[in-house]
Specification:
Blueprint: H1 7-13, H2 26-47, H3 62-86, H4 95-120, H5 129-144
Helix pairs in contact: 2-3, 2-4, 3-4, 4-5
Length: 147
C-alpha cells in the first residue's frame, strides 16, 4: 500500500528537491525535538513517584496537576515547533516568520517553566501571561503571514 503523501510529495510542497529535506524553519525543528526530549525526561522523573498515593499531594493536588501540565506542555509545544518547522508559511525571512518562530520557542520554554514555578510557589502563577502572550503572538503571526 502506497502512502498518500510520500516524502517526494511533501518535499515538492516545501519547494525542495526529491531526496533532500527542505525545512522552512529549521531552528524550530531542532528546538522542538529538544522540548520533546525534555518532556519525556520530565515524565520519567515524575513517573518515579506516581505509584505513591500521596506523591506531590495526591493525584488531584494543584502541585501535581501543574507538574503534569508542564510535562505535557513540553511535548505538545515541542511537536508544534516541529510542525511549524516543516510548514512553508509564513515565508522564511519575513517578520511574520520571525514572530511565529520565536513565539513558539518562547512559549515552548516559558509554559513548562511557569507550570513548575507555580507548582513550587502558587503566587508565581502570575507568570502564565508570558507563555500565553508568546503563543498568541505566534499564532497571530502565522495567520497574518499566509496560512
Amino acid at each position: 500500500m502506497q502512502a498518500l503523501l510520500t516524502p517526494h510529495h511533501s518535499l515538492a510542497l516545501l519547494g525542495g528537491e526529491p531526496g533532500a529535506l527542505a525545512l522552512a524553519h529549521p531552528a524550530n525543528a531542532t528546538f522542538g525535538w529538544a522540548l520533546v526530549l525534555a518532556g519525556f525526561a520530565s515524565g520519567a522523573l515524575l513517573g518515579l513517584g506516581f505509584h505513591r498515593e500521596g506523591f506531590l499531594g495526591g493525584y488531584g493536588s494543584l502541585r501535581r496537576r501543574l507538574l503534569r501540565l508542564g510535562h505535557i506542555a513540553l511535548i505538545a509545544l515541542g511537536l508544534l515547533n516541529v510542525v511549524y518547522a516543516i510548514y512553508p508559511a509564513p515565508a522564511s525571512g519575513t517578520a511574520a516568520a520571525a514572530v511565529a518562530g520565536i513565539g513558539l520557542m518562547v512559549g515552548g520554554v516559558s509554559m513548562p517553566v511557569a507550570c513548575v514555578l507555580a507548582a513550587w510557589r502558587e503566587p508565581l502563577r502570575c507568570l502564565f501571561p508570558i507563555p500565553v502572550i508568546a503563543l498568541l503572538a505566534s499564532v497571530i503571526a502565522l495567520l497574518s503571514g499566509g496560512v
